[in-house]
Amino acid sequence: MAKLRKKRISRLSENGILFVDFRDTKLLVRYLNEQGKIIPMRTSGNTVQQQRELSKAIKRARHLALLPYISDIQR
Amino acid sequence: MESLYCTIFIVDVSQNPEEVETVSSRIQQLIEDHGGIIKRNNPWGKQKLAYPIQNKNYGFYVEIEFTANSHLNIPKTIEQEYRINDRVLRYLTYVVTKKELQHREINAAKMKADSKPVPSADESSPKSKIEDAAKSEDESPREEKVEENVDAGKIEDEGSAAIEEKAEEKEEEKKDEQEREQETQESVDVEEGEDVEKEKPQQEEIPEDKKE
Fold it and tell me: What are B67-80's pLDDT values in tens digits?
């Protein structure tokens, strides 16, 4: 079977402005796996710039206890 | 350079809920004394922390925005105060970028559009439709599997030898599906789906072993 890859339209730069707000935890949670790790670019399909913004936002959110550093519990 | 700063801090309210006012007023005073202008004071309220800090599970979040000249070095003075104050569990101070301001403007516009449903329907509907379509595509395989599992559970309650055969068949089907998905799609949502699948068969297997 030929590998069919869906081109995933990232929701991060919807309005042409690439900014990820660390207050928007609902959005950030999509880019964490169940252990609370950041999902890599190769799986999420983000560009370098998007991933940079995203990881910065996630790290800020973690610092302020909006997101867990480690989690075993399902969302 | 005049710049816009945003500072967020978490106050411990487990012993005395009035601490919030004293701490936030102290910070505001510090900012104004050093020559900053407070633009926005936004208390988020008491929230559950994602992980315990100093054995506390709840904290009161306060957000303050202010403009100041960068020569005044106000973030440094505030953070000194945060460090001294025992009631402050966490703090974050950063310069608000142009991008963030643009983002906020767009969000505010969206909020306005949402509050007026009749004119906004034309603007907001195409995006939401696309999102919905994307979601439905991603979620549809998961939903089917859930239904299967529910059926399997019902049959198990009745209790017969045929169950095990059916369960095996279903497991095989699932394996096939997993393989197909791995080949076709590599995306975030699918990963989540796979995890769910891996766990559910395990739950089914355990009771069967006990019966035997």
Answer: 999 888 999 999 99
How far, in Å, CA of B198 to CA of B204, rounded? 11
Per-residue pLDDT tens for B4-52? 999 999 999 988 888 899 999 999 999 999 999 999 999 999 999 999 9
Separation CA B87–CA B26 (nearest Å) = 12
C-alpha to C-alpha distance for B181 and B90, rounded to whole angstroms: 42
Cβ distance of B186 and A43 shorter than 8 Å: yes
The DSSP result for chain B, as a single string, is -EEEEEEEEEE--SS-TTHHHHHHHHHHHHHHHTT-EEEEEEEEEEEEEEEEETTEEEEEEEEEEEEEEGGG-HHHHHHHHHHH-TTEEEEEEEEPPHHHHHHHHHHHHHHHHHHSHHHHHHHHHHHHHHHHHHHHHHHHHHHHHHHHHHHHHHHHHH--THHHHHHHHHHHHHHHHHHHHHHH---HHHHHHHHHHHHHHHHHHHHHHHH-
Q: Which of B141, B187, B130 is nearest to A5 (CA)?
A: B187
- Predicted model pTM: 0.60
DSSP A32: B
Q: Which of B104, B138, B192 to mutate to test the interface with A (most CBs of A within 10 A)?
A: B192
B93 touches chain A (CB under 8 A): no
Is the complex ipTM higher than 0.95?
no
Give the chain A residue nearest B189 (alpha carbons). Answer: A30
Give contacts of B186 with chain A, Cβ < 8 Å.
5, 42-43
